Amino acid sequence: MDKYSGKNVVITGGSSGFGFTTAQLLVNDGARVLITGRTQASLDEARDRLGENALAVRSDAASMADIDVLAGIAKTEFGTLDALFVNAGVTSFAPFESMPEYVYDELFTINAKGPYFTVQKLAPLLTEGSGVVLTTSVANVRGLPMISAYAASKAAVRSMTRSLARELLPRGIRVNAVSPGPIDTGILEKALSSEAAEQTKAQMTANNPMQRFGEPAEVAKAVLYLAFDATYTTGAELAVDGGASQL
Hints:
247 residues; Rossmann fold
């Protein structure tokens, strides 16, 4: 079954995690997908795994020049877009008292400024009826330690989801957000020492109403629902968090 045959989709931050899983589901169902990432080796591996219907472009969400280039490549390769998944982002753990300014700036540049201008530059390519999905986080509605700046950057994305949904409504473009909770993507292992990552995962599992981490495919399916099937939904945020933000 080629549910997405003829569809063109751009996914930022698509070389790993649920960005890659979303790309995989789309390609498997007939879509052409352009993924971005900052590491060429990871992009090359992801493209090889996705196959000939995938295009991988090295692009930094913190770079306005890279975003401009990305928009140009998408226009050349696809002409128009049926969906845009703005997923590129970074996480950093630090107590409020010792948060360095450069880390704060990096979080807001990549997690908030990048998505805003990615949508701005790619919106002209989106067709009527298309969907934009932004990645927020359960952290934007919960007071969690060690991630105050990260949480604030994701709260900014939640706010812009509403604003961009209103501004793009006259063009028939829907804008929604997916809000993941603890998802087993390996990001904790990359950000923390192995011991700290293990302790954090154990604590997060114990605190989660469903008592487990989510799988990348569970987020990917929510993204595809918002991008293509939620035709009477815009400005919304769909939590995929095991109930963490609701219970």
